[in-house]
Amino acid sequence: MITVLGIENFKVLKHIELNDMKRMTLISGRNNIGKSTLLEALFLYMDHLSGDSFGKLNGFRNTIGMGVEGLWEPLFYQMNTENPILITVTDNGRTGQLKYERDNQYLPSSISGLSEEVLASFRADTRSSYSLACCFTEDDYEEHGHFSLNGNGVLKDFSTSLPGNENQPMKPTKFMNNLLFRNYDVLVNDVGKVELSGEKQKLVRALQEMDPAIEDIVTLAVHGITQLYIRTAGKLMPLRYAGDGIAKLLSICLSIMCQQNGLILIDEIESGFHYSMYGRLWKLIDHISRRANCQVVATTHSYELISGVINNIDHSDDFCYYRIGRKKENTVACRFDYSTLHGALASEMEVR
After folding, report:
1. Based on the number of CB atoms within 10 Å of its own CB, is 32 exposed (0-12), middle (13-18) or buried (19 or more)?
2. How far apart are CA 218 and CA 66, in angstroms?
3. Contact between residue 112 and residue 25 where contact means Cβ atoms under 8 Å apart
4. Could you give the 3-state DSSP secondary structure of residue 82?
5. For residues 23 and 15, is the Cβ–Cβ distance under 8 A?
6. What is the reported pLDDT for 128?
7. Residue in 120, 49, 325 with CA at minimum distance from that of residue 336
8. Is the dihedral of CA 262, 265, 271, 272 positive or negative?
9. DSSP H helical ranges for 26-105
10. What residues pair up with 347 in beta bridges, in sequence order?
11. For the segment 124-160, what is each residue's pLDDT rounded down to a tens digit?
12. pLDDT (tens digit, 9 = 90+) per residue, 170-181?
């Protein structure tokens, strides 16, 4: 489980540190303070070896980044590439650090599987701009490499300290927001995984905690297209016609159940749910994330969702809450454990 997250010079965050994170970690704060950026930093740390990780970050915000100006420079605090990005994570007692910095000297050399013509194209574009140097360290494990850009995409050139240049596996991680939770292809695939594992009834019971009218969820091929259906009152209804709450609930449940020993990052978790469901949502997340040994880090704007945790989770030692604020250039995190948050809410303190 991740217990510490430190960030320097990443997007809107010049510096911040979250200590003593828990299996259920909730984050709030005013607009543009960096809540979503915290989740993106965690995702980038876990996905940094993917050449498409930069494009995924743009996809989370429905933006299109092209060239170093659109893909890399927005990652740096105030788009200043002179100061390196540092993301530090303590996970299961092991502390690692991911570093990105501008490199004006590197040019791609011989890379297995790429023709000299393609390499020459990358060299020309890199020479006219720059590459992104990347270094990852965790205990005695190291990765060093560069990313280069041109019209063909991202070129990755990495070496590691393991024999055969093998990569150390990272924690399975999924990022979710309102743009992504209705990805029906992913939902169909995940329902299939849960059914094959014999866990589908657990999924149905989890959904029934939020909506007792749900009797089953089934996968049917209609006109050659596989779709999900919800059975209620003995009738089947395509999930595509269901409300956002049902689709998002299913997406959250499936993501946690399919990310055994993993990490789920949920931006604006309250969206799509009526406030009366917040307590049951917390109870559900508590139960299924504990069974899957999956950590959930979420952001919210909702006072009702924050207060919904009180008296609705069985494992209060597995929960913490951070209110994010700003002190001059630095962003600071004020941490509440369950009992402190309970007291603050009882005193009608503003905790958002």
Report:
1. exposed
2. 40
3. no
4. coil
5. no
6. 82
7. 325
8. negative
9. 35-47, 53-60, 67-71
10. none
11. 888 888 999 999 999 999 999 999 888 778 888 899 9
12. 999 999 998 877
Q: What is the pLDDT of residues 223-254, one digit of tens each?
A: 888 889 999 888 898 888 877 888 889 999 99
pTM of this prediction? 0.93
Contact 258, 265 (CB under 8 A): no
* Pairing label, strands 13-18, 2-10: antiparallel
The CA-based diameter of the chain, rounded to the nearest angstrom, is: 68
Q: Find the range with the poorest average confidence among 201-205, 257-261, 299-303, 348-352.
A: 348-352
Element (H, E) at 13: strand 13-18
Selection from 106, 196, 122 nearest residue 154 by Cα: 122
What single string gives the DSSP state of each residue in 194-229? Answer: HHHTT-HHHHHHHHHHH-TTEEEEEEEEETTEEEEE
CATH 3.10.20.30 matches 173-346: no
Closest C-alpha among 313, 306, 315 to residue 341 = 306
Q: Residue type for 261, please?
A: N
Helices within 48-153 (DSSP H only): 53-60, 67-71, 116-128
Q: Are 245 and 273 in contact (CB under 8 A)?
A: yes
What are the structural domain ranges in the chain?
173-346
Say how far residue 46 (Cα) sits from the centre of its chain.
9
